[in-house]
Amino acid sequence: MEMIAEQVRLWLSKDGNSMDALAGKLNLSSADLQKKLSGKSEWYWSQVLTISEVLGCRLEDLR
């Protein structure tokens, strides 16, 4: 799951992607998203699917 967090951070660094927008789409607070990005909280599969849609990447890109 740490790999997912690392890849999400990379995709968030690209133009047009924001942590606040992603948190909103995942129905998370920014603090909860930060916990997931730091590895303190696990990702749910539904969240991973939403992340790929929001960030415009393939699921394979998040491995």
From TrEMBL:
Residues 16-62 form the HTH cro/C1-type domain. One of its GO terms (molecular function) is DNA binding. It holds the Pfam family HTH_26. This is Phage repressor. The lineage of its organism: Bacteria, Bacillati, Actinomycetota, Coriobacteriia, Coriobacteriales.
